[in-house]
């Protein structure tokens, strides 16, 4: 039976009225399991009206009371973890353990945001001048919006709305139309936790909804995660409309492997970080860079049987290494990139294109693919493939290895594997990438730090969650005050800019 999904506006589920819908697939079966309404600009405007009406009262609540709602929400998410993970797996295709990790990493940011009474504390200077004190405060922006991707339908919305709501804003979430059910479930849990109606909305849709968000004058800030082309569009359109924008784009994350590295650990990490979630992660390791010919040969020798033995299975299979890709169209896009790499002269060591799963022939499955001898001049190296494909690009020395991620158009994450602390320190200092792992394959910062890449991986100058998230969702106000003593002498009018004497 095909389910009919809704929007969530004003604290309740509402049917779509635009007459336009999209199909939500079960990637394991290749079948439509739900229909999601695509909002019109008018529907988005109704969500903004509800958000604007609710935001002032929400912001007027003291930070401790807002934190209590988030504490209650955190407990509810933990209680409903299995339900959330199952729904996520059935729409996205990632395995159940991976789906639970998706939820948990988002919940960590909510947990961080529960500390908002401390995070919103400003600065104070007593006696900044004769009888003058100065202090600053951080205040919410008002109504803000998040446009979130298909690959983390729980984590990334919580990265955004956890901090935004804690700061006193009202938040409108436009999730991916490919897997929108989890944000709708999170909306129910926020309401159950005591969040007032209108403070959180879910508006489903496509480009029409995105453009409506970017053009609506009452939306003060937009956070986006997705491809770099759309991230640039969101940033350009949003800032042109006077909004604050953080737009995270694509990636091509490298793992640099020095000859002294623990190769057993390297291979384990490359298999997990390269093929986990079918490679549909913006922090996936997409390129392995062994330094030296001998190391490159040994790495390929060890990787080949591991890639060939990956268990690709339905997302609910407890033994699956990874499940199907999210849509048939995305599967075909990855296949086209594999063909491109082959045509460009890269050597295919393991070809996943012929993979088929008995009983699930219509599912969006793709076997693991391993390339060797990939060069920086290849388009398949320059582009983000976003699938279960690991490319090996060999480097003759440390400087050549350092140059590959530094000169790439993307600068999201990078890892280096070595036992040499001096080499690791030098690499971390000089590499032109926003997030660095040292013997860590996926260096996603924890919630109390901030997430963000460089170059075409991020548009805007404020990163996500952590202290940067609080800065993004607030505006600073600085107050200079003086309380004249009774009977004190007045200084009279002054026509020059005040200075300290």
Overview of the molecule:
The chain is α/β, with parallel strands linked by helices. The chain has 16 helices and 23 strands. The protein has helices at residues 41-60, 63-79, 81-92, 96-113, 116-119, 155-166, 181-192, 207-215, 228-240, 263-275, 293-308, 328-344, 379-382, 398-407, 421-430, 466-472; strands at residues 3-4, 7-9, 12-14, 21-26, 31-37, 124-129, 132-140, 143-147, 170-174, 200-202, 219-225, 244-248, 253-257, 285-290, 347-350, 369-372, 389-392, 410-411, 413-417, 435-438, 454-455, 458-459, 474-482. It has a 7-stranded mixed beta sheet, sandwiched between helices. β2 (7-9) and β3 (12-14) form a beta hairpin. The N and C termini lie far apart (78 Å).
